[in-house]
Structures are given as structure tokens and as C-alpha cells.
Design a protein that fits this description.
Blueprint (H helix, E strand, L loop, with lengths): L1 E6 L6 H7 L4 H7 L13 E6 L16 E3 L6 H8 L3 H7 L13 E3 L3
Antiparallel strand pairs: 1-2, 3-4
Helix pairs in contact: 3-4
Length: 112
């Protein structure tokens, strides 16, 4: 299982974040060793377990696309955003350890 780290935005609740990432709030509490009686603080970092690619509401590629070709000047962040997944997941799916290892024309897997 891979994880991403999320920075809490002002006014966000644990339940809201759990829904967004399709996990149980109790799992977030356990994984991050939180006290459910203490509200989240703005800027607090939470470890979020990822079991499947996250689909963002932004403009993404078609659902059946499994590969993405890196564009000239595109970073791992930009490629992941275009694919609708996290940068961490993009790097993990392709066995890339450092972001600098991607280059224009490279085909990257974007679905497990």
C-alpha cells in the first residue's frame, strides 16, 4: 500500500477528508495517531493510504487510458495532474524513485 501526505485546509474535518479519499475516518485516526476529540489544525499533515488511483474533478484523460506520454517540459506533478492521479502514485506505478527520471516522450503507466 502506498500513502500520500495531505495538508489540512482551513475548516476541513476528518470526515470530509476521509470521504474525499474513500476511506474510513477511523482508519485516518489510527494511521495518524489522532485524538478524535481534538479538531484538525490548518496545515496539519495527514498520511492518507491509497488503494486505487484517485480521480480528480479536473480535466483528465479518458477512463480507459492506461498510459500517458510525457510532454516536453512536463514535470511529474504536471503529468500526474493531467492523468488525474497523485504524483506519488504516478512515480510508484512506474518504479521511478526520483522525479528527475522522467523525460519528454516517455510512456508512463497511469492505471494499476
Amino acid at each position: 500500500m502506498i500513502s500520500v501526505y495531505y495538508s489540512v485546509k482551513p475548516g476541513e474535518s476528518l470526515a470530509e477528508i476521509a470521504r474525499r479519499y474513500r476511506i474510513e475516518a477511523e482508519e485516518l485516526i489510527r494511521l495518524n495517531r489522532l485524538d478524535h476529540k481534538i479538531p484538525l489544525a490548518e496545515g496539519q499533515h495527514l498520511r492518507i493510504p491509497i488503494r486505487e488511483p484517485l480521480r480528480r474533478k479536473e480535466k483528465t484523460l479518458q477512463k480507459d487510458t492506461e498510459w500517458l506520454t510525457v510532454l516536453e517540459g512536463e514535470t511529474a506533478d504536471k503529468a500526474a495532474k493531467r492523468a488525474g492521479i497523485s504524483r506519488e502514485l504516478l512515480l510508484w506505478l512506474n518504479g521511478i524513485r526520483r522525479e528527475e527520471e522522467i523525460h519528454a516522450g516517455q510512456r508512463l503507466r497511469i492505471r494499476p
